[in-house]
């Protein structure tokens, strides 16, 4: 998911429906649908250029749409399995994980600038805002890769030390901590970004797909398909407290934390008689 805080629009990649659904959070209703996609997995909205970027897993393409009319502007063909999308606001570059192991670097206009080679398919990744590093989950390689944006090369590899299926990731850049949630076993790893050492392990919801760090409250939210959100309080960079779990529903694993709105949005897929929906949770401090 991606969020336009100016208009309250939430963009949801509906992978099973081959669409992107546009939801007005203020009106609490779907306002538009972008059809004809091909297993959309990643979505990014950039308000300054009013562009929507959609990564398609089936075709390996990234499609650029006008953010108002949703007219298709251009298509970038990467080859296969285009997935997570992130933006570097300083360099004005869009990063897309794809294929058997690569990050594509795109311009805001969709131009394909370069690629960073990896040894496995990248899942969630996070960019430093004050540094030049990118931290990338490589679950097939059982590690986190560290890439330098200046040289566009891998400069370090950090083991998850027996924890497998490391898909979601969040970053506390100020305190030099990286949060990686694994599915086997279901636990959250806290890594020191100076050394890659694991400084803490905590239980986490099963089938976790997203995790977010709220810097102001020093709190983590991890959503999982097992049907809940794990909440963790950061007492210090090395000390964490399990605050329990909020029940959602089975299969509701993908989420987005809107910091400006202090809200957590969770995509709940259709399950038996329950229709697909967006669950909205207000964060209380």
Structure, described:
This protein has 285 residues and is mostly beta strands. The chain folds into two domains: 1-117, YVTN repeat-like/Quinoprotein amine dehydrogenase (Methylamine Dehydrogenase, Chain H), CATH 2.130.10; 164-285, Methylamine Dehydrogenase, Chain H (7 Propeller). 0% of the residues lie in helices and 59% in strands. The chain has strands at 2-4, 9-14, 19-24, 29-34, 40-46, 51-56, 61-66, 72-77, 85-88, 93-98, 102-107, 112-117, 125-127, 133-138, 143-148, 153-159, 164-172, 177-184, 186-192, 198-203, 208-214, 219-224, 228-236, 239-247, 254-258, 263-268, 277-282. The strands form seven sheets. It has a four-stranded antiparallel β-sheet, with no helix packed on it. A hairpin with a 4-residue loop joins strand 1 (2-4) and strand 2 (9-14). The radius of gyration is 18 Å and the shape is globular. The model has no long low-confidence stretch (mean pLDDT 97).
């Amino acid at each position: 998911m991606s969020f336009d805080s100016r208009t309250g629009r939430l963009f949801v990649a509906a992978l099973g429906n081959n669409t992107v659904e546009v939801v007005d959070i203020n009106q609490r209703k779907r306002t538009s649908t972008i059809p004809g996609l091909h297993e959309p997995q990643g979505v990014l909205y950039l308000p300054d250029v009013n562009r929507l970027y959609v990564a398609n897993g089936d075709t390996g393409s990234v499609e650029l749409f006008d953010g108002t009319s949703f007219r298709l502007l251009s298509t970038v063909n990467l080859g296969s399995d285009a997935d997570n999308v992130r933006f570097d606001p300083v360099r004005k570059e869009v990063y897309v994980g794809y294929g058997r192991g690569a990050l594509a670097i795109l311009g805001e206009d969709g131009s394909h600038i370069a690629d960073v080679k990896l040894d496995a398919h990248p899942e969630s990744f996070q960019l430093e805002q004050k540094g030049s590093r990118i931290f990338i989950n490589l679950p097939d390689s059982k590690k986190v890769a560290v890439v330098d944006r200046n040289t566009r090369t891998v400069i370090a590899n950090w083991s998850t030390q027996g924890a497998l299926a490391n898909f979601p990731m969040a970053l506390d850049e100020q305190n030099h901590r990286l949060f990686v949630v694994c599915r086997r076993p279901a636990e959250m790893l806290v890594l020191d970004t100076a050394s890659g050492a694991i400084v803490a392990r905590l239980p986490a919801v099963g089938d976790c797909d997203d995790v977010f760090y709220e810097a102001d409250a020093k709190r983590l939210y991890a959503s999982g398909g097992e049907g809940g959100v794990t909440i963790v309080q950061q007492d210090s960079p090395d000390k964490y407290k399990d605050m329990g779990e909020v029940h959602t529903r089975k299969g509701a694993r993908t989420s987005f934390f809107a910091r400006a709105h202090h809200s957590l949005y969770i995509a709940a897929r259709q399950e038996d008689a329950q229709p697909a929906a967006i669950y909205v949770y207000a964060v209380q401090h």
